[in-house]
Protein backbone atom coordinates (compact mmCIF):
# COMPACT_ATOMS: atom_id res chain seq x y z
CA UNK A 1 0.00 0.00 0.00
CA UNK A 2 1.46 3.32 -1.10
CA UNK A 3 1.75 5.84 1.70
CA UNK A 4 0.08 9.16 0.98
CA UNK A 5 1.97 12.44 1.06
CA UNK A 6 1.02 15.07 3.62
CA UNK A 7 0.14 18.62 2.59
CA UNK A 8 0.10 21.32 5.28
CA UNK A 9 -2.61 23.99 4.91
CA UNK A 10 -2.04 27.08 7.04
CA UNK A 11 -4.74 29.77 7.31
CA UNK A 12 -6.43 31.49 10.25
CA UNK A 13 -9.85 31.47 8.53
CA UNK A 14 -11.74 28.12 8.67
CA UNK A 15 -13.62 28.89 5.45
CA UNK A 16 -10.32 29.28 3.59
CA UNK A 17 -9.06 25.95 4.91
CA UNK A 18 -12.32 24.34 3.85
CA UNK A 19 -11.94 25.79 0.35
CA UNK A 20 -8.37 24.51 0.07
CA UNK A 21 -9.45 21.05 1.17
CA UNK A 22 -12.20 21.04 -1.47
CA UNK A 23 -9.72 22.01 -4.19
CA UNK A 24 -6.99 19.57 -3.18
CA UNK A 25 -9.14 16.59 -2.21
CA UNK A 26 -8.93 15.32 -5.79
CA UNK A 27 -5.19 14.67 -5.28
CA UNK A 28 -6.11 11.96 -2.74
CA UNK A 29 -3.34 12.92 -0.30
CA UNK A 30 -3.41 13.63 3.44
CA UNK A 31 -4.42 17.24 4.13
CA UNK A 32 -3.37 18.64 7.51
CA UNK A 33 -4.90 21.88 8.88
CA UNK A 34 -3.14 24.56 10.89
CA UNK A 35 -4.95 27.75 11.93
CA UNK A 36 -1.82 29.71 12.89
CA UNK A 37 1.90 29.90 12.34
CA UNK A 38 2.52 28.44 15.77
CA UNK A 39 0.24 25.48 15.04
CA UNK A 40 2.01 24.91 11.72
CA UNK A 41 5.44 24.84 13.37
CA UNK A 42 4.15 22.34 15.92
CA UNK A 43 2.88 20.03 13.15
CA UNK A 44 6.25 20.25 11.40
CA UNK A 45 8.03 18.93 14.50
CA UNK A 46 6.68 15.42 14.05
CA UNK A 47 5.45 14.98 10.47
CA UNK A 48 7.05 15.19 7.04
CA UNK A 49 5.25 17.22 4.40
CA UNK A 50 5.48 17.33 0.62
CA UNK A 51 4.47 20.99 0.39
CA UNK A 52 3.12 23.81 2.59
CA UNK A 53 0.35 26.21 1.54
CA UNK A 54 0.84 29.23 3.76
CA UNK A 55 -1.43 32.25 4.13
CA UNK A 56 0.48 35.53 4.37
CA UNK A 57 -1.98 37.61 6.41
CA UNK A 58 -2.47 35.96 9.79
CA UNK A 59 -2.77 37.54 13.25
CA UNK A 60 0.25 37.13 15.50
CA UNK A 61 2.88 35.23 13.53
CA UNK A 62 2.24 36.03 9.88
CA UNK A 63 3.22 33.93 6.89
CA UNK A 64 6.60 35.59 6.38
CA UNK A 65 7.66 35.00 9.97
CA UNK A 66 6.36 31.43 9.90
CA UNK A 67 8.33 30.73 6.72
CA UNK A 68 11.47 32.16 8.30
CA UNK A 69 11.16 29.72 11.21
CA UNK A 70 10.57 26.82 8.81
CA UNK A 71 13.65 27.65 6.75
CA UNK A 72 15.85 27.93 9.85
CA UNK A 73 15.13 24.35 10.90
CA UNK A 74 17.32 21.60 9.47
CA UNK A 75 14.38 19.20 9.32
CA UNK A 76 12.04 21.48 7.39
CA UNK A 77 14.12 23.98 5.44
CA UNK A 78 13.77 22.13 2.12
CA UNK A 79 9.98 21.77 2.21
CA UNK A 80 8.45 23.80 -0.66
CA UNK A 81 6.27 26.71 0.50
CA UNK A 82 3.52 28.23 -1.63
CA UNK A 83 2.35 31.58 -0.26
CA UNK A 84 -1.33 32.47 -0.55
CA UNK A 85 -2.39 36.10 -0.17
CA UNK A 86 -5.59 38.11 -0.57
CA UNK A 87 -3.68 41.36 -1.02
CA UNK A 88 -1.27 42.71 -3.59
CA UNK A 89 1.19 45.36 -2.48
CA UNK A 90 3.22 45.19 -5.67
CA UNK A 91 6.63 43.69 -6.54
CA UNK A 92 8.21 44.50 -3.17
CA UNK A 93 5.57 42.49 -1.32
CA UNK A 94 5.99 39.58 -3.72
CA UNK A 95 9.77 39.69 -3.46
CA UNK A 96 9.52 39.50 0.32
CA UNK A 97 7.70 36.20 -0.07
CA UNK A 98 10.43 34.75 -2.27
CA UNK A 99 13.10 36.10 0.06
CA UNK A 100 11.38 34.26 2.92
CA UNK A 101 11.83 31.00 1.04
CA UNK A 102 8.65 30.57 -1.00
CA UNK A 103 8.81 28.61 -4.25
CA UNK A 104 5.61 30.22 -5.50
CA UNK A 105 3.28 33.10 -4.67
CA UNK A 106 -0.43 32.97 -5.54
CA UNK A 107 -2.94 35.78 -5.05
CA UNK A 108 -6.52 35.11 -3.96
CA UNK A 109 -8.91 34.43 -5.53
CA UNK A 110 -6.81 31.84 -7.32
CA UNK A 111 -7.63 29.43 -10.10
CA UNK A 112 -8.36 26.04 -8.45
CA UNK A 113 -6.94 24.16 -11.45
CA UNK A 114 -3.67 26.09 -11.35
CA UNK A 115 -3.25 25.63 -7.60
CA UNK A 116 -4.00 21.91 -7.81
CA UNK A 117 -1.55 21.47 -10.68
CA UNK A 118 1.27 23.27 -8.84
CA UNK A 119 0.72 21.27 -5.65
CA UNK A 120 0.53 18.05 -7.67
CA UNK A 121 4.02 18.63 -9.08
CA UNK A 122 5.57 18.95 -5.62
CA UNK A 123 3.64 15.93 -4.31
CA UNK A 124 4.86 13.84 -7.24
CA UNK A 125 8.47 14.87 -6.68
CA UNK A 126 8.17 14.16 -2.95
CA UNK A 127 6.77 10.67 -3.54
CA UNK A 128 9.53 9.85 -6.03
CA UNK A 129 12.17 11.06 -3.56
CA UNK A 130 10.68 8.90 -0.81
CA UNK A 131 10.65 5.87 -3.10
CA UNK A 132 14.26 6.42 -4.12
CA UNK A 133 15.39 6.76 -0.51
CA UNK A 134 13.60 3.57 0.51
CA UNK A 135 15.06 1.60 -2.40
CA UNK A 136 18.53 2.97 -1.72
CA UNK A 137 18.24 1.95 1.94
CA UNK A 138 17.20 -1.59 1.02
CA UNK A 139 20.03 -1.83 -1.48
CA UNK A 140 22.56 -0.64 1.10
CA UNK A 141 21.40 -3.35 3.51
CA UNK A 142 21.75 -5.94 0.76
CA UNK A 143 25.26 -4.78 -0.11
CA UNK A 144 26.33 -4.73 3.54
CA UNK A 145 24.95 -8.23 4.01
CA UNK A 146 27.12 -9.50 1.17
CA UNK A 147 30.24 -7.53 2.14
CA UNK A 148 33.45 -9.48 2.59
CA UNK A 149 31.93 -12.98 2.55
CA UNK A 150 32.00 -15.32 -0.39
CA UNK A 151 29.32 -17.94 -0.40
CA UNK A 152 27.37 -19.89 -3.00
CA UNK A 153 25.36 -17.48 -5.06
CA UNK A 154 27.38 -14.45 -3.95
CA UNK A 155 28.24 -13.58 -7.54
CA UNK A 156 24.57 -13.63 -8.47
CA UNK A 157 23.74 -11.40 -5.48
CA UNK A 158 26.43 -8.94 -6.55
CA UNK A 159 25.11 -8.82 -10.09
CA UNK A 160 21.58 -8.29 -8.79
CA UNK A 161 22.77 -5.45 -6.54
CA UNK A 162 24.54 -3.77 -9.45
CA UNK A 163 21.41 -4.14 -11.54
CA UNK A 164 19.42 -2.41 -8.81
CA UNK A 165 21.97 0.40 -8.69
CA UNK A 166 21.59 0.98 -12.40
CA UNK A 167 17.79 0.93 -12.09
CA UNK A 168 17.82 3.42 -9.21
CA UNK A 169 20.15 5.68 -11.14
CA UNK A 170 17.76 5.61 -14.09
CA UNK A 171 14.80 6.41 -11.86
CA UNK A 172 16.66 9.32 -10.33
CA UNK A 173 17.44 10.58 -13.81
CA UNK A 174 13.70 10.55 -14.51
CA UNK A 175 13.11 12.73 -11.44
CA UNK A 176 15.88 15.06 -12.59
CA UNK A 177 14.12 15.37 -15.94
CA UNK A 178 10.85 16.14 -14.15
CA UNK A 179 12.59 18.85 -12.17
CA UNK A 180 13.69 20.43 -15.43
CA UNK A 181 10.10 20.27 -16.63
CA UNK A 182 8.98 21.98 -13.41
CA UNK A 183 11.38 24.84 -14.02
CA UNK A 184 9.88 25.29 -17.47
CA UNK A 185 6.35 25.09 -16.05
CA UNK A 186 7.12 27.91 -13.63
CA UNK A 187 8.52 30.00 -16.43
CA UNK A 188 5.57 32.39 -16.37
CA UNK A 189 6.20 33.16 -12.68
CA UNK A 190 8.54 35.84 -11.40
CA UNK A 191 12.23 35.08 -11.87
CA UNK A 192 12.69 34.82 -8.11
CA UNK A 193 10.16 31.99 -7.93
CA UNK A 194 11.87 30.01 -10.65
CA UNK A 195 15.27 30.53 -9.07
CA UNK A 196 14.01 29.45 -5.64
CA UNK A 197 12.34 26.34 -7.02
CA UNK A 198 15.39 25.36 -9.06
CA UNK A 199 17.68 25.82 -6.05
CA UNK A 200 15.41 23.69 -3.85
CA UNK A 201 15.23 20.85 -6.34
CA UNK A 202 18.94 21.01 -7.11
CA UNK A 203 19.76 20.52 -3.41
CA UNK A 204 17.39 17.58 -3.05
CA UNK A 205 18.42 15.85 -6.24
CA UNK A 206 22.13 16.45 -5.68
CA UNK A 207 21.82 14.84 -2.26
CA UNK A 208 20.01 11.83 -3.70
CA UNK A 209 22.55 11.48 -6.50
CA UNK A 210 25.45 11.59 -4.01
CA UNK A 211 23.77 9.02 -1.75
CA UNK A 212 23.10 6.71 -4.67
CA UNK A 213 26.64 6.98 -6.04
CA UNK A 214 28.03 6.23 -2.58
CA UNK A 215 26.33 2.81 -2.68
CA UNK A 216 28.71 1.54 -5.33
CA UNK A 217 30.96 -1.04 -3.62
CA UNK A 218 34.68 -1.25 -4.27
CA UNK A 219 34.97 2.15 -5.91
CA UNK A 220 37.80 3.48 -3.74
CA UNK A 221 36.29 6.91 -3.48
CA UNK A 222 34.93 6.88 -7.03
CA UNK A 223 31.40 5.49 -6.72
CA UNK A 224 30.55 6.74 -10.19
CA UNK A 225 32.72 3.92 -11.52
CA UNK A 226 30.04 1.48 -10.38
CA UNK A 227 26.90 3.47 -11.21
CA UNK A 228 26.65 4.78 -14.75
CA UNK A 229 25.84 8.48 -14.82
CA UNK A 230 22.32 9.22 -16.02
CA UNK A 231 22.66 13.01 -16.03
TrEMBL record:
Q: Which InterPro entries does its entry note? A: Bact_response_regulator, CheY-like_superfamily, Sig_transdc_resp-reg_receiver
Per the record, which residues fall in region Disordered? 212-231
Residue ranges of coiled coil: 158-192
Pfam families listed in its UniProt record: Response_reg (PF00072)
What is the protein named? Response regulator
Which residue intervals define the domain Response regulatory in the entry? 6-123
Q: Which UniProt keywords apply?
A: Coiled coil, Phosphoprotein
What is the protein's species of origin?
Streptomyces smyrnaeus
Task: Specify the domain of life of the species encoding this protein.
Answer: Bacteria
Carrying 4-aspartylphosphate, the residues are 55
Amino acid sequence: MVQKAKILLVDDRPENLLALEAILSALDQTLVRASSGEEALKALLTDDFAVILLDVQMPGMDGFETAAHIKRRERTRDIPIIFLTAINHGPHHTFRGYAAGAVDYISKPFDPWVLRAKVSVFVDLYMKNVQLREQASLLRLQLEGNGGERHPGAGEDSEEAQGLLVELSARLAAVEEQAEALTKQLGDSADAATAATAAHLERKLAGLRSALDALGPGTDGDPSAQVPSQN
